[in-house]
Design goal:
Four copies of one chain form a homotetramer. Chain A is α+β, with helices and mostly antiparallel strands and 467 residues long. Chain A contains eleven helices and 13 strands. A four-stranded antiparallel β-sheet of chain A has the order 1-4-13-8, sandwiched between helices. Chain A has a four-stranded mixed β-sheet with strand order 11-10-9-12.
Chain lengths: 467, 467, 467, 467
């Protein structure tokens, strides 16, 4: 959910969408109210501008290479999000629209499953053309056309496209996060360990880990089908769940705490791991989180600011579900279910915009998780709740596999082909990260990744049963 | 477990154990009451005898070969279950016990994770020695020793070993089912399509599919930690769940119904599948259930009685979770969660011993699922409930991933290393199959396999939300 | 070839055939003279009897399992060689012949390339049926029928089948060697390291390595197209080659010498290896020949007589081309080309039947290479030449890739599809081994394997340029 | 061999080097005469300038991406060849030389085998930094320093570096060819099929295929160890070979001829292929040469000028050894051995500089093979011999595996680690291609690739035995 005003104004928007950036493709309910369009146009411009601002320090070479099949090149992110606005808005609602380049649909569509319709994901890095410069020109052209349509379209068109623009904005924001985690993964391939952006370090303490009580019973989670604010379809319907009393940690697990796990043989003891986790540890010879390297008796960590010694107070990040789950077992605790997490966040998490999220001004962005007691980098951020770091810093692995909510119905139409299709073999993460745009996160938001994934800003919040 | 008398007599047995045969290794609570030992000894003898009776038609060649890493050779099953009694009972409770063959521990242990301790699973088929004949001699020797101990042991020993014998029996029964599904997979490798056992076909109708109502609300599922009867640790603790009103099918999906799904392009339409399921279909070029082959305009099915035309009324079997889930979507229904299934089975499923299960006398066994209205093959079987085929015929895929119950605690000791460690990446199946020994199944029993697994007798029961 | 009489008598037999057992399928020239048929029938019976005699110590379980795709089960060897006589002789020349079992053609044909025609090689170990006992019955029936035909056939038939019987004999002999190397590989999979056959060890010295001179110039190698004795098509035509003066070692490299190579870091120094060899060493983590294991400060070697300390005087065996080539570089020598080897063998190699080959009486067989100065195990063996171990003990890797001789023409007909088709990516070995039947080897014989292959009895003979 | 004067002047240069660009690393004999240095400096400047001229049409994005492990990014080629001059000349002979960037040695060294010393080949495309612009700056700086040294160095230094400069020039030329074949492979990944360089097509006929006689006997091939002109070590020593009379085709096989092979089922008939070739065809589903695609009833070919219909008269190119060998069998001919080829080229091939090679002025370059009777694109080119297309157009597969010449000795020192180490599993190609720099080729030049390689400009010249 974004800047609340605009969302409310857009009326009863219930759109299907995907948990991950590559998958959405929404056709919203038609009844939305197009009212404060200038606000929407401004928000559109701001979000679109952030994407290019994030690329300021990148060379054309940085923007084309793909470091692994899971990651996409920067250029592809910039083009794909643009194609989204062109295909779903201009192509349908701009009178007599002529495609910017007829071949871009094939190149930058991530959407349809039928074989041959789109360039294969794992080979996105082979597309040296169009160049980054040409993609930026494409962005400028489409942005101007969308703004033009928003300011000159008749009322019927505006009513139709307003919710689509909002979806496009959320889609863009998902890709902003992926752009950051993907470029981090790429730059790390270089023996030179180049920095993406130098950022000041704010020394702070994480404080002692405390526990917050949450009362059990029947609770409701998820988003009602007729809620006014934006949400993805996988957050619906709102429904009842039952759980017992439990406690949740008041901050994330720190680097120092995770280093103690390593020190205690965490990566060498099969009894701490799920069987599939232990196989993964051995297959990939994991001995620490992604981006950590040993340097004598200390650990270095590659961040978007380059290679540095780990901050013992900052939250551990870039860990898989398997590592989170093993750590929790070692710490004689467990991970929360997503129902528990969402209930705890509603009670103790505070304002979702108040965390270490991706600021709209990149000079306010940290690009890395920070210690629980750090002052918010962004002066615009609000006060968080007692469940510190609930929003921002790191996505928090839950013990819940990504499954449909009871009564979940995928939307009809083209999107119906795709919604929910990833509901197998993945685990839910909650709360957003330092790379999640500030206006993109909410307590009901369900992110999901395979239990082996480590290149996102993922971390650990412990839960436990009362003594 | 079913034969209630002996279990009750054994007292408050709560033992850790594994959902799948290869994983257990239980140290039971010490307080069990060893009383009706002659019953236990008889049960032991019966179950052990069934394992060898199942091998009657097999040559030494059939018993040594491993058809895939997931499957084990018959000989290995026979030896491993025997080693289980030797290692956990004789070696510990028989005074001055001398191992039958010191090398068998390494060869037939499936248990400890530390590398090098055991022969690798995927290479069990390389063990041509000891021969099948030598393994049978090993079985006879250990059986005699266990019976000797059961009849001559002092009271303290008997109190200790009675629950271990019962665990060994359940462990043996799990391997009986695997022995059958593994030998089926092996014999099918042969272009000769040999029969394991000729069985009479009982023509019968499956009848129309009907729907049974189950009322929603807070329900309890699972087994209390202090329940008297045997259950595996993953069935505990008994706990509350919430679900809404739903309906469950009164029989399994038939071959004819599944053939209509194929006819309708079921294996060629990505919109019907989870993304991971669709990838699997393409990777393995699936076009039908395992063991089906096209013969002109009809389907043949390889069964333990050889290759035959499919029985349209019999339940479809040897399908993956992905196929079950896709079929349900196609049929505008869904799979039940395990909480729904267990509640429905308790209300409508009837006597767990009443189904088409593996009879103790092999001449009563069908070795294949049969139509819903078939007379029970085994005259000893009871009347089932209105939720026909609830127990036996096919394991029923649920929509639930295999996860720990709230408050689940793995037991202490050596077993603690293993319990629950498979709780990732697998889905729960319920109800037993035609290859599940009759005294082995119960409503709370949680079986689990990867969503791609097809070589078990797995099938589909539909559920749906009320209109 | 050895039993010279019968071959000569068979006349101008020039048949196409394959260097390796699985590949032949010969249609001989029609003009051969069928004369001393009783000798041929005797030879047939002796060779066929040796195959079964080799299996005396094997259980049915040993005979069915396949340890790797390159190796075939014992049972398959026994059946395939039998099918060869049935398909090429009985089926064509026995009046109104009815196949022993119509399905055996599919199961035991290794011959035609068209997809679907035959059981895939890598899955031969899945064929548990027919059983070993049934395969032996098949052998007895076919043997009787062939002998019957040889004694009762009319002259025309006899003229036609005599060369086919001889080819079948050579084919059988190739499979005898593979049977031994394949069963060795299988038994070695077992942690029990069982012995195939206990054999007495004959302590002997290998003596100092000496060098024999061979004068350079234009030489002829290969077999003339109209030679009377049997030879495979790849040995023709006889043709001229040119090489310079060189020297060849008077015995094979010993275990002690090879251990010195290891001691000197042989497996850890990339400068000693071909690039592809070094990749192989790292990929498979080779640190010694196949079947060697370290035991404290000594090396153990698994032989067909079980696990034993290496004999320092015996030739090193079970090494790849890459290891042979690296050893030669380390020893400041090289491998001979096949033209050099054949010329040297003709000058210095002595009688091809005089070496440590597979004796017709298995109690005379060593089943392992022996030291250069050992007394011949078989009292029937002749005196070898100064180029000791030239025939028998180990196949000797040459530096020549397996390529067609100039003017080589594959024969017409069905066989033409296959001859020469393996002439890429393999290296030539010469001289036979302890597992090569005594009457099977000759100086022109070209064996060939991939440079990574180690499960044959392969060894090293050094060559060098004159100082 | 280059402009003969300078080579001669450099004196008795016999340096070890590699057949392929990534492998050299030469320490020349010290005695070379440094005389006409201005000529050498000019040649150095010309060759270095050609590398950058080849990149004129490329964007930074084109220059960084790696399309497959066998291919390197353009940027890597530009940097690696520069590092070569820096490491072997400036670093050793420039007084108090300070590396341009200390990290470049690690990034751009392709040389030492010891693990960890260099960036892994398959990950060269991950190096987005230094950028293309920075690499060009690096080139300019090194070029200036080398020229400076060539004009100001004292006599001893000049004597030492002259042969090194010449080796560096040849090394650069090898990389120019790879740069072209690698960028072609990359651009072809794009669905847009972009052109590297538009080139005019010169319509011409290939004429009838004729046969040239070569008399058999003992011949000499290779380069004497003391020859004055440059040659790689694998071309030595000059030695005697024997072959019989044969005939060689007077031009390459054309696209039309190869299309007839396809039409005749060439890719579907196993009898035409070597076994390993047939496996490759099936594994990769080959149905035509690389870069060919079917368009209705015609074939399109991707060239460096984009996608175009095939020219029926132009030579078929981008085929593997397997395809060349299969085509020859189909055409009832064969491939020549390298000894035959070299002898025929010496007798009938004409001037090595006279073919369709890579011209020094890129506006004279064809960047593609042309029909046998085409006028030479480069006005500077001489008249070829009757064995048309002998030099240039396509590398010609021979039937010879890449093996050491008799008496071949790898040079001492660091290079000794590498020379000859690729002499296994590859086949020799002769004659150069349209991408081979004009001054780089000679009759004794041995190129070599795996039999599966297709991305080089490789083609087919037939040979046959006299009737």
């Amino acid at each position: 959910m974004t800047t609340t005003t605009s969302n409310t104004d857009l009326g009863a928007l219930r759109r299907p969408a995907a948990g991950l950036a590559d998958r959405p493709a929404p056709q919203p309910a038609a009844e939305s109210a197009p009212n404060p369009l200038s606000q929407l146009a401004d928000h559109f411009s701001q979000v679109r501008a952030l994407s290019t601002a994030l690329c300021e320090s990148l060379s054309p070479e940085d923007m084309v290479v793909q470091s692994m099949p899971d990651a996409s090149p920067t250029k592809w992110h910039l083009a794909h999000t643009t194609w989204f606005f062109e295909a779903f808005i201009l192509d349908k609602y701009q009178h007599a629209y002529k495609p910017y380049d007829a071949r871009f649909g094939f190149l930058f569509n991530s959407y349809y499953n039928a074989i041959g319709d789109r360039h294969p994901r794992a080979r996105r890095g082979m597309l040296t053309r169009p160049t980054a410069r040409e993609v930026l020109a494409y962005r400028h052209a489409i942005d101007a056309a969308v703004r033009e349509l928003l300011t000159t379209g008749d009322e019927e068109v505006l009513r139709a496209i307003a919710p689509l623009v909002e979806i496009g904005i959320h889609h863009e924001q998902q890709h902003q996060e992926l752009l950051l985690t993907d470029i981090k993964h790429l730059l790390w391939q270089s023996p030179l360990s180049p920095a993406f952006r130098e950022t000041p370090t704010i020394p702070a303490s994480s404080g002692e880990l405390g526990w917050l009580d949450v009362a059990g019973g029947v609770h409701e989670i998820g988003v009602p089908a007729d809620a006014p604010a934006f949400a993805y379809d996988n957050e619906s319907p709102r429904h009842r769940v039952y759980f017992e009393d439990f406690q949740i940690a008041d901050r994330l697990v720190t680097n120092a705490e995770f280093a103690a796990f390593i020190e205690d043989g965490g990566y060498t003891r099969p009894d701490l791991w799920l069987d599939a986790g232990w196989s993964t540890v051995r297959e990939h010879a994991w001995t620490a989180p992604l981006y950590w390297t040993r340097d004598g008796d200390r650990w270095l960590e590659y961040t978007l600011a380059g290679q540095h010694p780990i901050d013992p107070h900052a939250p551990v990040t870039h860990i898989s579900f398997f590592e989170a789950e093993a750590y929790a077992r070692w710490a004689k605790a467990r991970l929360a279910t997503e129902a528990e997490w969402e209930t705890a966040a509603a009670q103790h998490g505070g304002d979702p915009t108040a965390g270490n999220l991706l600021a709209e001004r990149t000079d306010h962005a940290t690009f890395h998780p920070v210690a629980a007691n750090s002052p918010a980098a962004d002066p615009a951020a609000q006060s968080p709740g007692p469940m510190r770091q609930c929003f921002g810093d790191c996505w928090e692995w839950t013990r819940s596999d990504y499954a449909p909510y009871p009564g979940y119905q995928p939307p009809a139409g083209a999107i119906g082909e795709y919604n929910g299709k990833f509901m197998c073999g993945q685990f839910v993460l909650r709360g957003g990260s330092c790379a999640t745009p500030r206006s993109h996160i909410r307590a009901t938001y369900r992110n999901f990744f395979a239990p082996t994934a480590r290149w996102q800003f993922s971390g650990i919040r412990l839960a436990r049963n009362p003594a």
